[in-house]
Design a protein that fits this description.
The protein is mainly α. The chain has one domain. Helices cover 75% and strands 0% of the residues.
Amino acid sequence: MSKTPTERPLAVYFLIIWMLLNVLLFLAMIPSDPQDLNNYIELVLWVPSIIGLWIMKKWGTALSVTVLGVTTGTSMYIVLEAYYLDMLNEAFASINGLRIVVNAVVMVYLFRSIFSGKFSE
């Protein structure tokens, strides 16, 4: 039987803030490419993953790991596209580079947290 967490770790609050920042970055990308369905799909997936993480459920954490993986892939695509098409905006590439690194660390933390009993069934 798994234990039910009584309170949220401080890390969960930081992760939710980070996820909300990712949502804001996606909202900022929509006007530049309104026909890209991927941005809309990711926004729709962020909502249940943030809610699932907030209520400390394993399914929400697993969904968060998946959505962070998709977002990391999108950020990698943006950085590579900017590099190879000589459209490299240093600030834009730096933000997406930071997102890649932070998302990777967060994914590892959440994946390990699923199996360590920090989240309920």
